[in-house]
Amino acid sequence: MQRITEGSATIENETAKVVSKDLPVFYNPVMRHNRDITLLLLAALVKGQKRHWQCCDLMAGSGIRSIRMLKEIPDAIEHVTINDYDAESNKRLQKNLKKNDIKFATWTINDFIEHSLKVEGPGGRDGGVILPKVLVSQLDASQLLLSSNGYDYIDIDPFGSPNPFLDASMKRLSRGGILAVTATDTSALAGSYPDACVRKYWALPCEGPRMHEVGLRILIRKVQLVGAQYQKALTPVLAYNKDHYYRIFFAVEKGKKKCDELIKQHGRWEDEAKAGPLWLGTFTDAKVIDKMLKFMETNEKKGTLELEEPEKVRALLELLKEENKFKTIPHYIFLNDLNKKAKKKMTKAELLKKLGKDGSPTHHHGNAIKSAKKLI
Length: 376
Hints:
Number of domains: 2
Strand order of the largest sheet: 5-6-4-3-7-8-10-9
């Protein structure tokens, strides 16, 4: 057992040398960046707003994400349900909450059902019977959601595919809320197992240098289709791939027409015509990124958010904003391919300068450039 400090949270947990679903309780330091982005987005979106977040951390593990929420952005959090079905994980996260002086109540399935019968709206906001600020539960994720009154923010962060948790999440995600989805089964989404991708995500992936762009867009489409069944339109406001995972934040709106508008942006990508169908629109909202960057500046002077990797976070946000300036999915230009056909070799910086507003770098591939023009 190891004592670990991340941000303002201190926990005791096993550190995973090799991430595995067979490890019921572990702390993965690689995901610090993921948690930094999550806290920053939640804090930035409610700054200056009356509404604060009713959150559900479905698969909390050590509890590190929720602990950081409660200690670093307390003004943004109205409530958080911290759940993990595994008994050992649940025991450990409760110890970690106590270690951080966070008071909490523990609820069973009957407690959630009883509460939901009394009130309406996320957390009982519309009925006057408000949830305790921090709840801990040891329930099946879907069972928890369907027994609850719903949440403004639901975080799906499984080992593997988020698919088993999407349906219940859609049913309990409030209008104007945010759904955060992590997928670690990138071997399917990135083309190593195309049959698995078709079976799980209803689309054909591709292998090669465009695989993560395609995989991320396939995942976006799948989540949108599940939401559309319940007339919930999910627009990606921030999406990226890093290390072994894909991470997407969706803003949810209610309405058939809004769902129809999103579905019209599903199709095939000219650069990878055999792959898909996939999401063809932007996967980042520039306004959301601007809010996050502005919050970072303010926080550095007088904030409580303790980002573990602030420079990496800032660099990623700025790059995502730049590469998502195109209204539809652009072309990929690979320097090696371009230079093979050109008489004079060109550097990445030179090509970006030549393309101007029609080009941008991409976080998906270090040797590629996105372009509104198809050069080769």
